[in-house]
């Protein structure tokens, strides 16, 4: 049996690749009786021929520059192929130069008459495939010891006179091919793609951009081929265009019907007219990679058993959307017929149609090149209705179509539902939605196409196994601890895509594969300087799905962006108290997102201790809270309990705690008491009271202000005697020192201060970095006490991870 191979321009753009193609053909000949090989023009030659024709017909002699490029490309490839066989170069070189001279003469003619008819343009375009196929024919004849022949495809493929995109008479063409094969003996037949001839006058025609695929399909039917292979520069069909979407997946097999939908809606691997002849004759099609010939590629056939309900996503860029609205449409039979007839009479192809159920609007997409003609004929056809203001035409020219292709027509409703859920949840701006056959389509702004395509693709295909993508701000104690915990996780559902410090940021993928030191080094040497406005825009524009913004800083500016992120369906998790303890209006807005599990801030109060969760449970159960007391700083509890048990100076104990990472880099931030004040403020707000930070009296552990760690330690050493007197006084009464925040709503009392407590107090024996909260309600006789680690790198980081998992 015969097999048909087709090699595109990217597969033959230089002599090295043509030699690779020769090897592929040789290997095929070892296993097959007859091979027909179709060649496109060398890479980018067709575009240059179009440019030549355009410039020449407008009287611009710069067409010669493009002609010279075409000349040099073809001659150089030929000479490189025959580099080791100079004695055999003469005949192919003579034929090639003759073709190029003919091309030059034609271009000169249209330059002189300033005219370029479609018929002439098709003849000019045919030179690309004629040149490439002849050059490769002579090279293969030199390297393959088989019976090899050349056939000008325009001798057998017959069309009408619709130049540039001629309609092929399949029956006549395939019969011509059958006749040629029966009359000619060959093992290898070389054929130029794209070109044909008119049944009326035998003039040269072309069968559409991408027509070399179609040529292979026609020869596949005409030769009753076992299969057809299209060789290109990718490993078969992908779930989306890799030039638009990152992390696409390979498709091993798909049906002809799926392939047709994908090709129709902009899939550029295969020309859509290629499919029908093969489908009707049940000839399998394979998409293969010239650069990776052992890869199995994608098989396209009639019967395919697929588990996935979604095959691929495609798009048609830069179309025009026309919307017709008006009372004249409602219940008026014949409006649609008049509309589409007038467009059809002007050969305007409608790509997509959508009509409202109320019958008062019709939306349809066409190529942008047809906009002027379409609006003219519509305005003419509906002139009476327009004059009565019963008809309005709206035009959008900067839109694109995104199509989700299903593997089965029975899945259409489910696919449409999934697509619309993604659109609504992620607030994708759409103009039209249409669902029919194997596809579900939306029309979107062209400038949002890449972002929308990536988002939809990643939501539908969940690429790389990762489900949630983390933007991690701050690699201090908590941030670095979180990074290490995520790195050690055995379930790979979290992907760190960005990290920042106060100076730099990195945006990448799977950053947790780095070790922390390597990551910090990369961060410090990053080319991206940290600008919060720019960074937030990067987060918003990033097309990955399921984004979570994790703020592990103590920055007071960043929380102002939380609402923007949340309104764009980006989860926010933070141990940063500055947001929820700032103005009450921001807290109330953020809390609305918290109730939807979009904003999580558990660690702002108790670090790894679920203080907020406990308090919210009590409030939901309508407990009347009468008193709350808490030691909300594991840092201060550690410092004070250590101080009470040892003879060390207070300043030495604080310094040691700082070195262990228990305090903030500047311990003043802990000892000032403001951190505790923010925590009790958050608790009070969760109880339903609208107060602000300035409403809370705070007795600081320090009698000074320190703007840096060095400043702090220079000053605190002068207060060691003061702290020793406090300790001596407490011990002399059998008491200990604790830093406690209290809230008694009935007494309208709130305080943050250093307290002396005796052994009867529930906090007396709470030591180390423990946090503790005691909540008294009207339901229980004794306070509810919650105690646990409240400071430390990994304790807090673990709480942050738990918040991330709540969003997940």
TrEMBL record:
Keyword Transferase: yes
Cofactors (names): a metal cation
GO molecular-function term, one example from the UniProt record: aspartate kinase activity
UniProt entry tagged with the keyword Amino-acid biosynthesis: yes
GO-annotated biological processes: lysine biosynthetic process via diaminopimelate; methionine biosynthetic process; threonine biosynthetic process
Entry-linked InterPro entries: AceGlu_kinase-like_sf (IPR036393), ACT-like_dom_sf (IPR045865), ACT_Aspartokinase (IPR054352), ACT_dom (IPR002912), AK-HD (IPR049638), Asp/Glu/Uridylate_kinase (IPR001048), Asp/hSer_DH_NAD-bd (IPR005106), Asp_kinase (IPR001341)
Keywords of the record: Amino-acid biosynthesis, ATP-binding, Kinase, Lysine biosynthesis, Metal-binding, Methionine biosynthesis, Multifunctional enzyme, NAD, NADP, Nucleotide-binding, Oxidoreductase, Sodium, Threonine biosynthesis, Transferase
Span of domain ACT: 324-407
Protein name according to UniProt: ACT domain-containing protein
Catalytic activity reported: L-aspartate + ATP = 4-phospho-L-aspartate + ADP; L-homoserine + NADP(+) = L-aspartate 4-semialdehyde + NADPH + H(+)
Native organism: marine metagenome
């Amino acid at each position: 049996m015969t097999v048909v191979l087709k090699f595109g321009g990217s597969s033959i753009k230089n002599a090295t690749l043509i030699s690779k193609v020769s090897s592929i053909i040789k290997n095929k000949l070892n296993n097959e009786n007859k091979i027909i090989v179709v060649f496109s023009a060398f890479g980018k030659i067709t575009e240059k021929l179009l440019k030549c024709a355009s410039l020449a017909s407008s009287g611009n002699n710069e067409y010669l520059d493009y002609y010279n490029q075409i000349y040099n490309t073809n001659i150089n490839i030929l000479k490189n192929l025959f580099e080791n066989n100079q004695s055999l170069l003469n005949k192919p070189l003579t034929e090639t130069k003759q073709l190029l001279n003919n091309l030059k003469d034609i271009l000169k003619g249209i330059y002189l008459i300033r005219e370029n008819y479609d018929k002439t343009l098709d003849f000019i375009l045919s030179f690309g495939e004629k040149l490439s196929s002849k050059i490769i024919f002579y090279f293969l004849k030199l390297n393959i010891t088989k019976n090899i022949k050349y056939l000008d495809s325009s001798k057998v493929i017959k069309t009408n006179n619709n130049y540039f995109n001629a309609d092929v008479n399949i029956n006549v063409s395939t019969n011509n091919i059958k006749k040629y094969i029966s009359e000619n003996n060959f093992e290898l037949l070389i054929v130029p793609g794209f070109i044909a001839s008119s049944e009326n006058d035998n003039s040269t025609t072309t069968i559409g951009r991408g027509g070399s695929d179609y040529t292979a399909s026609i020869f596949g039917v005409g030769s009753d081929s076992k299969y057809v292979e299209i060789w290109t520069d990718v490993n078969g069909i992908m779930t989306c265009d890799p030039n638009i979407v990152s992390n696409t997946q390979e498709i091993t097999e798909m049906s002809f019907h799926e392939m047709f939908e994908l090709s129709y809606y902009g899939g550029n691997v295969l020309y859509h007219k290629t499919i029908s002849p093969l489908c009707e004759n049940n000839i399998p099609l394979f998409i293969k990679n010239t650069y990776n010939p052992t890869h199995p590629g994608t098989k396209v056939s009639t019967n395919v058993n697929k588990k996935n309900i979604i095959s691929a996503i495609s798009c048609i860029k830069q179309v025009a959307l026309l919307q017709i609205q008006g009372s004249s449409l409602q219940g008026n039979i014949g409006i649609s017929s008049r509309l589409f007839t007038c467009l059809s009479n002007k050969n305007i192809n409608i790509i997509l149609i959508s009509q409202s159920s109320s019958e008062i609007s019709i939306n349809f997409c066409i190529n942008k090149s047809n906009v002027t003609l379409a609006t003219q004929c519509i305005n003419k056809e509906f002139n009476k209705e327009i004059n009565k203001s019963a008809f309005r035409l709206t035009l959008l020219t900067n839109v694109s179509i995104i199509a989700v292709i299903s593997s089965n027509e029975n899945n259409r409703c489910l696919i449409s539902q999934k697509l619309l859920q993604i659109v609504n949840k992620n607030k994708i701006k759409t103009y039209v939605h249409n669902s029919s056959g194997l596809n579900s389509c939306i029309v979107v702004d062209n400038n949002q196409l890449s972002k929308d395509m990536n988002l939809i693709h990643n939501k539908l295909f969940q690429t790389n196994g990762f489900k949630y993508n983390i933007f991690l701000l701050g690699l201090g104690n908590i941030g670095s601890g979180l990074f290490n915990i995520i790195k050690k996780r055995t379930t790979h559902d979290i992907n760190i895509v960005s990290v920042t410090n106060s100076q730099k940021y990195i945006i990448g993928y799977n950053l947790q594969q780095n070790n922390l030191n390597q990551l910090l080094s990369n961060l410090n040497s990053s080319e991206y300087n940290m600008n919060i406005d720019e960074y937030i825009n990067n987060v918003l524009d990033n097309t990955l799905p399921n984004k979570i913004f994790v703020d592990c800083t103590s920055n007071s500016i960043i929380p102002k962006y939380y609402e923007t992120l949340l309104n764009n369906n980006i989860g926010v998790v933070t141990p940063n108290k500055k947001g929820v303890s700032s103005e009450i209006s921001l807290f109330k807005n953020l809390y609305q997102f918290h109730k939807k599990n979009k904003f999580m801030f558990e660690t702002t109060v108790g670090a790894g201790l679920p203080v907020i969760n406990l308090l919210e449970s009590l409030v939901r159960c309508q407990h009347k809270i009468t008193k709350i007391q808490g030691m909300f700083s594991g840092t201060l509890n550690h410092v004070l309990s250590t101080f009470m048990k040892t003879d060390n100076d207070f300043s030495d104990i604080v310094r040691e705690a700082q070195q262990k990472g228990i305090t903030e880099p500047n311990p003043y931030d802990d000892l000032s008491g403001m951190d505790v004040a923010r925590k009790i403020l958050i608790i009070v707000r969760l109880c339903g009271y609208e107060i602000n930070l300035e409403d809370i009296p705070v007795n600081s552990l320090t009698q000074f202000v320190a703007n840096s760690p060095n400043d702090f330690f220079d000053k605190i050493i002068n207060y060691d005697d003061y702290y020793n007197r406090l300790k001596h006084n407490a011990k002399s009464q059998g008491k200990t020192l604790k830093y406690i925040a209290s809230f008694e709503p009935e007494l309208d009392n709130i305080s943050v201060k250093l307290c002396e407590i005796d052994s009867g107090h529930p906090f007396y024996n709470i030591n180390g970095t423990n946090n503790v909260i005691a909540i008294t309600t009207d339901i229980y006789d004794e306070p509810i006490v919650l105690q646990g680690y409240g400071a430390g790198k990994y304790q807090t980081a673990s709480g942050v991870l738990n918040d991330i998992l709540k969003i997940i």
